[in-house]
């Protein structure tokens, strides 16, 4: 066995932490944290300056209105991190709401049974998207634009240009009833459960690491052992199932289902995800940022409405905010690159240079 001295015995040890930035900077200098701060600032400003913006009552109404948006944003986050997109979520919601209405009101099924069947239908519709994207190799943008129209047509076929109404009072009231003495409706419970499940799935499992790897490079993820096609199929199936669950909630909350139920929701979902720090090119994002992004849109929308602003002003402000977040994303990496690192001193590095051997001095020793 042979060993070779390199003259670095006296040099300070260099570890990964020696080159990393300060932990506080790495946590604070992120888009997600910026959105969280913006959410707090906007909420406090509205609470103190807008006359009819009442804290508990506003939270109750926002929870009811934006629960389906937040639900659909959770699987959408994972899909966009992989570099794909699902524009058919609102249409899937519409189909599932129509299925629930038809089964409960026209066929006298119980609401739980109809809800389970509606979620199954949503999962099948999502799996159809996933099959074309993952196994046929079609672009997700093209596929889901097509199924957006297809699924909306299915909803119209089920309802036949009429409004279905008349859900049982017990189930109609449950989603919007308050949890005990709090100011939060019952729908918050399944939403919180879904947030926890998707947060664990994305950030604390090998499946989630595979999602990020796919977003960075499909080919590299494949060679590292990630089943790319199966992962995408699972994600689109989850998206369809969660959209269907949101559709059941929307149908019960409104006590009616129409051909346009959920129309336009997909834009709010995608806006919330991108505003929350998820890269449209894939490979990066965090679920807490998405939750903050959806809530920021909800608070802005409510505050501007209560302040007497028209819908066009609301759309312009939210659009500018979304564009600004994308611009900030490209510049944030440059700002972070200028931050000081805890690098090892140049003088310390110089001590690692092997000494010049003197004549007759053999630095290579052989140990028998």
From TrEMBL:
Q: Which residues are listed as membrane-spanning? A: 33-53, 65-81, 117-138, 187-212, 233-252, 264-282, 313-332
Superkingdom, taxonomy of origin = Bacteria
Q: Which GO terms describe its cellular component?
A: plasma membrane
Is Transport a UniProt keyword of this protein?
yes
**InterPro entries in UniProt:** ABC_transp_permease
Signal peptide as annotated in the record:
none
- Region Disordered: what ranges? 346-368
The molecular function terms of the Gene Ontology recorded here are:
transmembrane transporter activity
Listed A to Z, the keywords are: Cell inner membrane, Cell membrane, Membrane, Transmembrane, Transmembrane helix, Transport
Q: Which Pfam families match?
A: BPD_transp_2
**Record's subcellular location:** Cell membrane
Write out the coiled-coil annotation as residue ranges: none
Membrane topology label: Multi-pass membrane protein
What is the official name of this protein in its record? Autoinducer 2 import system permease protein LsrD
Its source organism is Nocardioides caeni
Organism lineage reads as: Bacteria, Bacillati, Actinomycetota, Actinomycetes, Propionibacteriales
């Amino acid at each position: 066995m042979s060993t070779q001295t390199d003259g670095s015995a006296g040099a300070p040890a260099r570890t990964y932490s020696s080159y990393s930035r300060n932990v506080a900077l790495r946590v604070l200098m992120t888009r997600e944290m910026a959105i969280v701060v913006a959410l707090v600032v906007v909420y406090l400003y509205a609470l103190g300056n807008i006359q009819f913006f009442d804290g508990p009552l506003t939270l109750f109404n926002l929870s009811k209105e934006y629960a389906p948006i937040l639900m659909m944003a959770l699987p959408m986050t994972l899909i966009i991190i992989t570099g794909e997109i699902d524009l058919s979520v609102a249409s899937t919601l519409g189909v599932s709401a129509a299925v629930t209405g038809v089964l409960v009101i026209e066929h006298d099924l119980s609401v739980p049974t109809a809800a389970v069947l509606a979620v199954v239908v949503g999962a099948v519709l999502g799996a159809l998207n996933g099959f074309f994207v993952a196994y046929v190799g079609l672009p997700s943008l093209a596929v889901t634009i097509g199924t957006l129209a297809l699924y909306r047509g299915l909803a119209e076929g089920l309802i036949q240009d009429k409004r279905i109404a008349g859900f049982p009072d017990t189930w109609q009231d449950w989603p919007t009833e308050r949890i005990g003495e709090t100011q939060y409706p019952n729908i918050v419970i399944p939403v919180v459960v879904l947030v926890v499940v998707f947060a664990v799935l994305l950030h604390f499992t090998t499946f989630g690491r595979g999602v990020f790897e796919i977003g960075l490079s499909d080919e590299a993820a494949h060679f590292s052992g990630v089943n790319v096609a199966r992962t995408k199929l699972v994600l689109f199936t989850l998206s369809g199932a969660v959209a269907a669950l949101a559709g059941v909630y929307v149908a019960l909350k409104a006590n009616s289902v129409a051909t346009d139920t959920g129309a336009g929701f997909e834009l709010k979902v995608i806006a919330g995800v991108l505003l929350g720090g998820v890269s449209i090119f894939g490979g990066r994002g965090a679920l807490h940022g998405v939750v903050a992004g959806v809530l920021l849109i909800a608070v802005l929308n409510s505050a501007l409405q209560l302040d007497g602003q028209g819908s066009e002003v609301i759309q312009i402000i939210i659009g500018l905010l979304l564009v600004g977040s994308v611009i900030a994303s490209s510049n944030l990496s440059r700002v972070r690159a200028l931050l000081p690192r805890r690098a090892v001193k140049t003088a310390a590095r110089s001590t690692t240079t092997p000494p010049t051997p003197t004549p007759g001095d053999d630095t290579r020793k052989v140990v028998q």
